[in-house]
Design a protein that fits this description.
Length: 369
């Protein structure tokens, strides 16, 4: 997605992170750099059977030269003992001291809302994962909290932290917040520590839950910003990111929805794999007031991936991979990640105009098979 400036450098850096994590743990996770945004004037399709359906009429869309690019969230590490806290730079107060974390409330039995949902081909979906966020803290049996200090990942100027200021559960929702701290501090990227004044939140099911095929639903509301600088992503990444090769996106990536504050009236899905194009998308899936709760759904079978927003089909893809047989690469378990980040490139963060703090609020995540 978006402008190519900085893409190669981000991909090289993230490939180094992948290699290191894979060598240490034999199974790492990192999201590659931002892909090229296809022409917004067209809905890209791969293969003769691909269809895309737009939910509403499309307003004028900015030219590709100013189109945003995706956040590049990655996963936290596996060994909690090796995590470090962010240290303030010399002479800096650093991030505000967070309140002591509260023990997580035991999660109720998974029932995905309790109402059976019918499959298109007959029968009903079976609930496999459900977090209604009705407790008082992130459930550690279901989620990991991303920390830049562990694996070096950050999308833009933010530092991902495991702090209640950035990741919290209250009022029946998960809150992912990007915020300005009191002063500059050192974000302890293991490879390249950097100074910043912004922290943010991300969670992932890495090491907790993965699934191939099924129905994935996220009900969420997004920040109220209508100027550039914020990015939210609900996305899936393969449990084994090297199964079909070391080059992204050989093993696939599914962005159920990405939101850019420079284009606040739409959610944009992306399906990435080696096909006729690396980016299968629809830039015309309009959302009426993203600050209200909306339903973002993916139905994934061995034949197709269907993205549905508020009950309206946004994108359908029957993928035709190059160098492998369908249904690869989308025949393996994927994990799910939820990210609030600062914008980059065409949706770049501007501290003078981007409103902070900004929070993505998730009502629930439900998954069926």
């Amino acid at each position: 997605m978006g402008i190519t400036s900085g893409t190669a450098a981000l991909r090289r850096r993230l490939l180094v992170c992948i290699t290191l994590l894979f060598a240490i743990f034999l199974a790492g996770l990192t999201m590659p750099g931002p892909p090229q945004l296809p022409s917004i004037a067209n809905v890209t399709a791969a293969g003769p059977s691909t269809t895309s359906t737009v939910s509403t009429a499309s307003p004028a869309v900015p030219s590709p030269s100013t189109a945003p690019i995706a956040p590049n969230p990655s996963t936290p590490g596996d060994a909690v003992a090796q995590r470090t806290t962010t240290a303030p730079a010399s002479g800096s107060a650093g991030p505000a001291t967070p309140p002591a974390p509260t023990a997580a409330t035991p999660a109720p039995a998974d029932n995905c809302g309790g109402t059976p949902i019918s499959k298109a081909g007959g029968g009903t979906w079976t609930c496999t994962f459900d977090d209604e966020f009705n407790g008082t803290a992130v459930d550690p049996t279901k989620w990991r909290i991303q920390e830049t200090s562990w694996n070096g990942f950050h999308s833009g100027a933010e530092c991902f932290m495991s702090s209640p200021n950035n990741v919290s559960v209250s009022g029946g929702s998960l809150h992912l917040t990007v915020r300005k701290e009191r002063s500059n501090f050192t974000c302890n990227d293991p490879q390249h520590p950097y100074n910043t004044q912004w922290t943010s939140g991300m969670v992932t099911t890495y090491g907790k839950f993965t699934q191939a095929y099924g129905r994935f639903e996220i009900r969420a509301k997004l920040p109220a910003a209508k100027v550039k600088g914020l990015q939210t992503a609900f996305w899936l990444w393969p449990e084994n990111p090297f199964k079909y090769g070391l080059v992204w996106p050989q093993s696939g990536e599914i962005d159920l929805g990405e939101w850019y504050s420079a284009f606040p009236d739409r959610m944009i899905p992306y399906i990435h794999y080696f096909g006729s194009t690396e980016n299968i998308t629809n830039n015309y899936c309009m959302i009426d007031d993203v600050t209200r709760f909306h339903s973002y759904v993916m139905e994934w079978t061995s034949d197709s991936i269907r993205i549905i927003y508020d009950g309206q089909t946004c994108l359908v893809n029957h993928w035709y991979p190059v160098g492998m047989q369908h249904p690869a690469p989308f025949d393996s378990p994927f994990m799910i990640s939820l990210t609030q980040a600062l914008g980059i490139a065409g949706n770049s963060f501007d501290p003078a105009i981007t409103p902070l703090p900004a929070t993505t609020e998730v009502d629930y995540v439900r998954i069926w098979k």
